[in-house]
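Quick one, tokens below. Sequence please?
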């Protein structure tokens, strides 16, 4: 019985890891678990430090004010560590050493080199994609294969790319150069300016990048 409970909790945690923050109701529907059962598993995962419960964003609250808004469950750093390979302590120590010696330039160059490698490999996958939607979808698939549990969807006048997991979150939290270089890589791959809205490294539940569709802007008369 205990093994079955553990497997179910693992499924609940993985659902949040791969799809991003979710309410108990959404998780129960997705995993076909009773509301009472899902809440029991969520309570255990929160107690273990794997998940944390947060108030929903203001935009997600029913404007008609019906009832109390449901809490959103988010993966914690401890939870992510349960599903990822331990990051290279030696590499982190080396970066700290370089930074302590005033070699910030070397840290930036290292982050840039890593981003260039990502760009080179991803470019082959995006090469035959015809439009921004196809490109962003292909980029999400590539990133998922790299361990980022990514997905994309249309958002307003563009696309929104979400990375629900970050294998280097601990490194990026100390060295934002890695997030900056990665964002630049996305811009080059997609052929347009992109805007990073949130990052796991800074404590957000998901890394979110907005990708404006310049064709939509032109159609709407907002670009010359």
């Amino acid at each position: 019985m205990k093994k079955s409970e553990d497997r179910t909790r693992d499924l609940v945690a993985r659902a949040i890891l791969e799809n991003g923050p979710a309410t108990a109701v959404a998780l129960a529907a997705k995993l076909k678990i009773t509301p009472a059962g899902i809440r029991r598993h969520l309570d255990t995962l929160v107690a273990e430090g794997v998940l944390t419960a947060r108030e929903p964003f203001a935009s997600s609250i029913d404007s008609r004010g019906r009832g109390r808004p449901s809490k959103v469950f988010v993966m914690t750093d401890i939870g992510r560590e349960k599903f990822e390979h331990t990051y290279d302590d030696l590499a982190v120590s080396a970066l700290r050493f370089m930074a302590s010696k005033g070699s910030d330039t070397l840290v930036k160059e290292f982050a840039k080199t890593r981003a260039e490698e990502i760009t080179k490999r991803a470019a082959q996958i995006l090469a035959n994609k015809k439009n921004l939607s196809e490109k962003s979808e292909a980029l999400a698939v590539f990133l998922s294969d790299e361990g980022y549990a990514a997905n994309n969807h249309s958002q307003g006048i563009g696309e929104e790319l979400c990375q629900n997991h970050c294998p280097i979150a601990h490194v990026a939290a100390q060295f934002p150069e890695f997030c900056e270089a990665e964002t630049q890589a996305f811009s080059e791959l997609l052929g347009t300016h992109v805007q990073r809205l949130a990052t796991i490294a800074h404590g957000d539940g998901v890394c979110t990048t907005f990708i404006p569709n310049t064709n939509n802007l032109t159609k709407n008369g907002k670009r010359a």
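The chain has ten helices and seven strands. Residues 58-64, 217-224 have pLDDT under 50 and may be disordered.
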